[in-house]
């Protein structure tokens, strides 16, 4: 899926080549892989899915934590994997497990390139805000938007991991803005992290809607399909840019990094006054969910 900035014929193939390389280097756990295969069958039972999850204690703990987090809004405590499957749903469970497992796959990235905890907190906040915006847009299957938000910059981790030396050229070229960093990525690689991220989502078997939301989140008006999903991630990414422990909600709302396209906001059809309460909600949920997904130290 070509990114809107891609004007060079070789760019998509280069992104695909690197995505395949990264997929090989940072493979998903066996239990998550088997779960994806099971869910491709219409005849699989919840019991069979539960057996795969229970075979991996870390995965079991994560499923129960997700089921009992603010992400699911469960009215009662979920104590069994079968209860978690029933609450979350099969497709949503697969998407969430793939996405949340990724947080622990990218290890060993040079610290001068990225602060991993800050990166994942920002990504979680983007997912939380995208889900909240989607609900207000009456997009009620909002779980995929959380996953897309969580993974919207995973392509940047892939570039850090697979092409660290080249990415230092990107950092040397770019100005202080996010837009400048995206332009520098395209100048050096011929594609941006958004296109590479979409290729990774495709290789991991995540739905086309999520691939499109990530591929076109930098320029949602150019998306050939799932334009509103791309706009949701675009706006959520901008709003999440300042959510971190040292920043207050008011600073996050009015910080200099909060900048989204007017056209993207218009696609959502929402009034601007919904933004402050969304940020207030995100402040609580993002830190809660981040504690569940926090990458383990190497």
UniProtKB/TrEMBL annotation:
Highest taxon in the source lineage: Bacteria
Pfam family name, one: HDOD
SUPFAM superfamilies tied to this protein: HD-domain/PDEase-like (SSF109604)
Domain HDOD: 25-220
Entry coiled-coil feature ranges: none
PANTHER family reported for this sequence: PTHR33525, RIBONUCLEASE Y (PTHR33525:SF3)
The protein's name in its UniProt record: HD-like signal output (HDOD) domain, no enzymatic activity
Lineage, opening ranks: Bacteria, Pseudomonadati, Pseudomonadota, Gammaproteobacteria, Methylococcales
